Amino acid sequence: MSGSSTLLPALVVTHRLTTLRQALAERGLDGMLVTKAVNVRWLSGFTGSNGQLAVTADGFVLVTDGRYRQQAADELSAAGCSASVEVTATAVGAVLTAVFATGTSVGFEAADMSVTAHHRLEADLAGRRLVATESLIETLRQIKDEAEMERLRRASAIADASFQAVQPLLHQRPTERRLAAEVDHQMRLRGAEDVSFSTIVGSGPNSALPHARPTDRVIEPGDLVVIDFGAKIDGYGSDMTRTVVAGSEPTADQQRLYEAVLEAQQAGVAAVAAGVSERLIDTTCRDVLARHDLGEAFVHGTGHGIGLEIHEQPILSGRSVGILRSGLVVTVEPGAYLPGFGGVRVEDSVIVTEQGCLPITKSPKGLVPEFDRAPG
Ligand code: GLY
Ligand code: MN
Ligand code: MN
What we know:
The chain has 376 residues and is an alpha+beta fold. It has helices at residues 14-26, 37-44, 69-79, 92-99, 115-124, 136-140, 146-166, 176-189, 252-271, 278-291, 370-373; strands spanning 31-34, 51-56, 60-64, 84-87, 105-109, 129-133, 194-195, 200-203, 224-229, 231-233, 236-237, 240-245, 303-305, 312-316, 329-332, 335-338, 342-345, 348-352, 357-359. Glycine binds at residues 197, 200, 228, 239, 333, 347.
């Protein structure tokens, strides 16, 4: 039962260094120390737990420790990365001093460096100016190439198949934890290397908690159940939410709430296209829910990019200022949450194109799960 039996296209990172060097030059930086693991991975292909990249106009060095000597060589070679590898646990400072020997200003990733590490870097690079950068590589990571999209498509397909597989369990009064465990298990059976994030299952009144942690509450027939989950393939994680009613026909109130959220979600997806403002997607969803008197019940942003992290740029919210571009992969996930009654969220991940968008999460939507609608 493998969802990813055909080989994944190789992820080639070669051109990313050029893009980063251009970004550094535009900021007047002579170099940059990259410490955030997913950014190291994006630039070099290296997936070890200890690695930093020192980048200058003509230098590119991965510093790691002895555990990763072989892995680093293999992964950099597979990704077409030209960095040289320095293996040391004790002389990291000396390596950085050598790489950044020329030039005066060195960027670092402000959101990823402890004060202690910063003090150490100041000592190692005495005489150089350390410049805090924010979201520099995260911005470069926004647009996905074809190999990245393929990973996200496969992860989404695994999540779709797993959602279908768990639906019979909704008739067996599982606890939220049991259902979440089954979702995770089904994704792994289908080839997921991991989950994208801790699976969310909120049932009955718990469905009104947008990021409910699964509990030992038994899911009863007639409960609203929000399931938000994703599979990870080669580092790239999918993201989808479906809301269903367990083992019973929905009530009129549940149906009304669901239809309002679904209308908002479909309007949001229909609005996605290259050239459209990110904020418009948020406004579109919010306006639909406001028309249904549910404006106050939509208590979070509308979407976000996905990729090596589950929440990436761009963020689609009322504070967004960017314009959607072709090649972004974003979620559209409005919800409405009524304390004591329950909540509904519907979320898809879509690839932004010039003409509109291509959803990569494809599970049928509807309060009655597909399993309960099947003939016979
Ligand atoms: N599960 C997190 C999200 O949908 O954003
Ligand atoms: Mn989600
Ligand atoms: Mn999401």
